[in-house]
Amino acid sequence: MTALLRYQAALLMRSQRWLAPFLLYAVFVGIGVQAGEPVLGALGYAVAGLVPVTAWAVRICLNQEPPAARTVTAAAAGRARAHLAAVLTATGAVLLVGAAAVLVVTGMGDHRMVAPLPAAAAGVLGAVVCVLTGTAIGALTTRPLIRARGWSLTVLLLASLLSLVATGSPAASAVSSLVTASGSAAVPYPWPALAGAVALASAAVALACRATARRG
User: Fold this and answer.
1) Residue environment code for 7-24, b if the CB has 16+ CB neighbours within 10 A, otherwise e
2) pTM, to two decimals
3) To the nearest 10°, the Cα dihedral for 24, 28, 31, 37?
4) Cα–Cα distance between 198 and 6 in angstroms, integer?
5) What pairs with residue 131 in β-bridges?
6) Whole-Å CA distances, 58 to 34, 44, 87, 106
7) SS (H, E, C) the chain
8) Contact present, 181 and 167 (Cβ < 8 Å)
9) Among candidate residues 76, 88, 95, 85, the one with its CA nearest the CA of residue 22
């Protein structure tokens, strides 16, 4: 698996397809987060943007190989393992970006009510929840489950939006807990949302890997 992860990461870096989602996320955070605002609310805004970014990154990684190269990789490592490596590469890349964003936003925020370390810890947990939710969306809205490009992008965007507003969504719960606590001394740690996000992402990726093993 290590070799597959390195291969997928190298493909992602060389393709430069990561530039669009990551630069848009930087703009999203740069415009929406102002220095001196309550840190928890700012973190809630910042981690919310990780849902569509992760879904987009997963879609990029699952479609970056040419068909011939994908066939060779599948023959050497198995379709399911190759599919899983692509998903994990995207998830890991966005987790790094999310962690960096949490640190930057925490440093810019108002800490009169909440100390930096607890705020950053809550932000990191929220980022993990949103990244895992985005991973599930990305895995379910591209090949082999949805092959048509137009439908894939449409469903991805709609699912990302719904995941941030729908009751019961792990991402919506984590973001809401941070925003609601803005300006208070209570730091929310979204453990239930994290458990839900882990279960959701695991089920979605397992389904996608099983489907690609059968259909390619």
Assistant:
1) bbbebbeeeebbeebbee
2) 0.94
3) -150
4) 24
5) none
6) 29, 22, 6, 27
7) CHHHHHHHHHHHHHHCCCHHHHHHHHHHHHHHCCCCCEHHHHHHHHHHCHHHHHHHHHHHHHHCCCHHHHHHHHHHHCHHHHHHHHHHHHHHHHHHHHHHHHHHHHHHCECCCCCHHHHHHHHHHHHHHHHHHHHHHHHHCCCCCCCCHHHHHHHHHHHHHHHCCCCCCHHHHHHHHHHHCCCCCCCCCCHHHHHHHHHHHHHHHHHHHHHHHHHC
8) no
9) 95
φ and ψ of 36, to 5 deg = 90, -5
Confidence of residue 216 (pLDDT cuts 50, 70, 90): low
C-alpha span between 50 and 166 (Å, rounded) = 16
Read off the pLDDT of residues 47-68 as tens digits, 9 standing for 90 and up: 999 999 999 999 999 999 888 8
Amino acid at 34: Q
